[in-house]
Amino acid sequence: MLCDRMNAISGTSYGDMPVHTGLWDIVNDTRNDPCARVAGIQLVQEGRALDSQDRLLNKFRSYGDTESCQMIEQICKEEIPHVRMGVTWFKYICKLINRDPIDLFHEYVQKYQWGIVPPFNHEYRKLAGLDKEWYVPVAFIRK
Q1: CB 40, CB 30: distance < 8 Å
Q2: Which residues contact 21 (CB under 8 A, 6 or more apart)?
Q3: Most distant CA pair in the chain: distance in Å?
Q4: What is d(CA 70, CA 2) in angstroms, rounded to the nearest whole number?
Q5: Of 112, 136, 137, 124, residue with least CA distance to 46
Q6: pLDDT confidence of residue 78
Q7: For site-directed labelling of 78, which of 67, 68, 94, 120 has its Cα 20 to 30 A away?
Q8: For the chain, how many helices (H) and strands (E)?
Q9: pLDDT given at position 60
Q10: What sign does the dihedral 121-39-128-14 (CA atoms) show?
C-alpha cells in the first residue's frame, strides 16, 4: 500500500529514501534482553507511531493529498493493537522477573536513552494500554 503510494506520487520505491536507524539500533542494543526489546520496539517505536498521526495528517492535508491521509489514519489505528500486545507481553515478563512494569520501562528508557518526545496522542496511547504514568515522567522536549 505505502510502496504503491510512494511510487505514484514521487516515483520512488521502498529503500530509495534515507531513513533513521532507530528500530535497528534498539534491536542491536537489546539483543541480550528480551524484556528491553519488547519495551523498545513495541512501547517506544510503535508508541511513536501512535503519536505521529496528527503531524502526518496535517502535512498531507496541506498538499491536498486525501488518499495518503486515509492510509495514515489506517496505519495509526492498526498500531494500537500492536502496542497493546507489547504492553501485555512486557507486563507478563515483568511478572516473571518480579519487577514493576512502569518502573522497569522508565529504567530502560533512561539506560538506552530512548527519546520519548511529545506531542503525544494520549487517546491512542490509552487505548493501547499506555496510561500517562508510563511515558510522561520520562518524556523530554527537544530543543
Answers
A1: yes
A2: none
A3: 51
A4: 11
A5: 124
A6: 94
A7: 94
A8: 9, 0
A9: 92
A10: positive
pLDDT at residue number 14? 72
Residue 114: C-alpha distances to residues 14, 16, 41, 98 (Å)? 26, 26, 11, 23
Set of cell numbers at residue 86: 507489547
- Sign (positive/negative) of CA torsion 73, 75, 92, 103? negative
Task: Give this prediction's pTM.
Answer: 0.86
Q: CA-to-CA distance for 46 and 31, rounded, in angstroms?
A: 18
Residues 126 and 84: their CA atoms lie apart, in Å, by 9
Distances in Å between the Cα of 44 and the Cα atoms of 18, 26, 47, 68 are: 21, 10, 5, 24
Q: Is 118 left (phi over 0), alpha (psi -120 to 50) or beta?
A: beta
